[in-house]
Amino acid sequence: MAVPLLEKAMRRGLAVVKIHSHPGGLAEFSPVDDASDGELFESLRSWTGDLPFGSMVMLPDGKLFGRVSSANGFRQLSRIAVTGDRIRFFGLGSTDVREQELRTSQAFGPGTVSLLRQLKIGIVGCSGTGSWVCELLGRHGVGGLVLVDPDFVELKNLNRILNATYQDALDGTLKVNVQKRAIEAMGFGTLVSTFAKDLMDRSVVEALADCDIVFGCMDSHDGRDLLNRIAVFYNIPYFDVGVSLHADGLGGVSHVVGRVNYLQPDGSSLLSRKHISAELVDAQSCLRRNPHEYEARRGEGYVANAHVESPAVAGVNCQLASLAVNDCLARLHGFRSDDGHDEICMCIVNTYMQTIRHEEPCLRLAKRAGRGDCAPLLDVPQLGERCVA
After folding, report:
1. What are the CA-CA distances from residue 276 to residues 271, 272, 279, 378 (Å)?
2. pLDDT tens digits for 36-81?
3. CA-CA distance, 354 to 253, in Å (whole number)?
4. Cβ atoms of residues 127 and 86 within 8 Å
5. CA angle at residue 372 from 216 to 111, to 5 degrees?
């Protein structure tokens, strides 16, 4: 049974991890474990070469600890992340609750406050919903935020970008810089990294691959598809925030629906849930790569609605961003009685909210869960052949 798995690991350059339990609750590796791991990994190394090997132990309460093996001996894992209906991190230390975190600690406990301060979270899109996600995660004392958005503040989007000013629009301030300024002024000590670049940039992919959680606050199909890939390849939980508002431009509103999709690496995807389409992914990717080819396709009727701007207002964006951040907090903390859903749909026109469960994994992406570095990166030719450093 192990031989096919080892052959697969060799073909794809994947890590091999041995997992066993300590029914008695011993929270460290025993001398027996040392001897067993050393013998097993020496045997595997003689067969598979320099592939990484790991050993993990599960305790009766579900906690995990582990180490990696090399020719120089064992090295303890500093962090283990498990992405399921709950999002769990093991191996992190504890921190004291600061005065600005007291009220959050009263709600969620010092353990969650400590966890948030040790997480790095990526936010792609810092405009409508994204600016509110930045605000909420900053106010919760998240340790590090990676902000991605190539655009500048304009007068037309002052109605929905939190913390943006009229002067920012006149100056053409980058949206990521507006949010960085606001987050740092909060005084929580959050480390903010900004990327005023397109998501289809290697440095952006590398930065997001190093995050513990990612939030997608974009409306483009190709961008959401690429972020879904990053989350799958690097085993990162992904919260996608989307708003659809239909209005006639004269005050008539017929449709306001927001969705928060929680995506696990080996589960369903935005594509399999039909929230993005392969046709628009291809069309928008073409528009990004080769505008002349895109215009030719559009003129021939092959693509439509690939760059249509939609109405957007702050109240709706704020409500959806809050829903997404609270969903994330619930999965980190565990205060919710039922985490069996992975999509929340909210209609403001008809005033309802429903939760949905997507059982079937994505046939296109789920098999790439945990694939990590590969050439080309994310199996996307435009990202080139060099692996992530």
Report:
1. 5, 8, 9, 18
2. 988 888 887 776 667 778 999 999 999 999 999 877 778 899 999 9
3. 21
4. no
5. 60
Q: How far apart are CA 189 and CA 116, in angstroms?
A: 12
Q: Domain ranges in the chain? A: 2-77, 99-383
Q: What are phi and psi of 73, to 5 degrees?
A: 115, -160
Give tens-digit pLDDT for 290-334. Answer: 565 555 555 544 444 545 566 678 888 999 999 999 999 999 999
Question: Global pTM?
Answer: 0.91
Whether domain 99-383 has CATH 3.40.50.720: the reply is yes
Report angle CA 125, 162, 254 to the nearest 5 degrees: 75
Tokens of 322: 């809050």
Yes or no: say if 79 and 88 are a contact pair by the CB < 8 Å rule: no
For residue 376, whether the previous peptide bond is cis, meaning omega lies within 30 degrees of 0, is: yes
